């Protein structure tokens, strides 16, 4: 059974940084295509970043150059490094496999002064 647990969210000022973590069990993140999504209040869930089972990555236009997706096979954990955060990045962030499976609880990111 696949279980993904997101953590690392919080309140940060505009221009700040956060690193989200996604601890996985039941799969090996090193050999699995993985994604980060986010959902802001009143909006649909949107794809933020993805990484293939190899090393190819994809980023949503609005986060490219500011966010970095990566993984640590030894820790079986997926990461999302977020820099230069903006108020419009405020959302609940979710990790998942690709194709997506069941959603976890996500982690709240709030960017506000």
Sheet with the most strands: spatial strand order: 2-10-9-4-5-6
Main beta sheet: strand number and arrangement? 6 strands, mixed
Structural class: mainly beta
| DSSP summary: helix tally | 0
Distance between the termini: 40 Å
What does the overall shape look like?
globular
- Rg (CA only): 13 Å
Strand content: over 45%
Overall helicity: under 10%
Low-confidence stretches: none
In sequence order, what are the helices and strands, one letter per element? EEEEEEEEEE
State the total count of DSSP E strands. 10
* Mean pLDDT across every amino acid position: 96
Characteristics:
6-stranded mixed beta sheet, mainly beta, 10 strands, 0% helix, 113 residues, 4-stranded antiparallel beta sheet
Give a verbal description of the structure.
0% of the residues lie in helices and 49% in strands. Strands 2-10-9-4-5-6 form a 6-stranded mixed beta sheet, with no helix packed on it. A 4-stranded antiparallel beta sheet has the order 1-3-8-7, with no helix packed on it. The mean pLDDT is 96. By secondary structure, the protein is mostly beta strands. It is built from no helices and 10 strands. It has strands at 3-7, 10-12, 18-25, 34-39, 46-51, 57-59, 67-72, 77-82, 91-97, 107-111. The protein starts with a strand and ends with a strand.
């Amino acid at each position: 059974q696949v279980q993904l647990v997101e953590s690392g969210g919080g309140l940060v000022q505009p221009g700040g940084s956060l690193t989200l973590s996604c601890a996985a069990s039941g799969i090996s993140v090193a050999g699995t295509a993985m994604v980060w999504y986010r959902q802001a209040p009143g909006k649909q869930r949107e794809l933020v970043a993805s990484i293939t089972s190899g090393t190819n990555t994809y980023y949503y236009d609005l986060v490219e150059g500011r966010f970095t997706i990566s993984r640590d096979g030894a820790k079986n954990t997926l990461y999302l490094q977020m820099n230069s955060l903006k108020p419009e990045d405020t959302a609940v962030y979710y990790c998942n496999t690709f194709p997506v499976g069941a959603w976890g609880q996500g982690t709240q990111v709030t960017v506000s002064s």
